[in-house]
Amino acid sequence: MPNKSRFSWPHKILFLFCGMVVAMFVVAVAIVLMPGADTKNVNYVIAMSIAQNVVVFILPVLMLAMLNKRAELKPFSHTLWMTKGPTLKSVLLVVLVWIAALPAMNYLVEWNQSIVFPSWMQGVESQLRNMESEAAATTSKLLDSQSLAVMLFMVFVVGILTGLGEEIFFRAGLLGTMIHGKVNKHLSVWAVAIVFSAFHLQFFGFVPRIVLGAWLGYLLVWTGEVWTPIIAHALNNGSIVVATYLANRGYISDNYLETTGTGDHWLALGSAVVTVLLLIVFMRKSPKTNKELMI
Fold it and tell me: Which helix (H) or strand (E) holds 265?
């Protein structure tokens, strides 16, 4: 008989956040001591991204998995939501949803970026916009691939590794712990989506990132595994890297993916409608063994 754990789901969430804070401190110290520590140095930014995903995101969840294995006799795969792999149908539907939702998401991004603060908060708005401009400049430099080899490497770092790290922490770790703790599924999905968006510290992308986080969360709930959210996250991030590379080569216009659907109300509305219909299909096509997770 498994031992009854002394740790409730709030304790496990606290454990994850404490592990994250400690890991962030260790990584920060290590990165500062690294030769060429400068956010304008591409190699430095890449090293920082890799360290963040492996140490800050993945390691705390692995530690939680060890805790669950010892206290509750639960296998690692249970905590990591890796007891099974993704289905071909799930992957295909993820791709279709991503394509269908692109105009609506871009429209939402444009709306969020157009928010204007009251006059008495203009100083705060200016500071937030400057922070995001600096972050965008760093990201642009990071994605500015001039060769196929560099582009593929950045797809791995920005797409696959980031998708793996963030989904293991936010979806398998935080959301998975709440679901195992019998917290309401919808409340859990949206609460973690808000935390996910807040972690990125970008106010003018806050709402679209909540929607993205909710979609990734429901993928975990509907499929019962973390691989599908990882694939969706990697697709979302990796496509930007590929699009930037293609734009640099003159095959597509600059910011092609980010501008599709902006300023077009009807295209955005149609995109939203089609996306909702596809999500309904996704939910209905989910494995029957996971139907109890949908309520």
Answer: helix 265-284
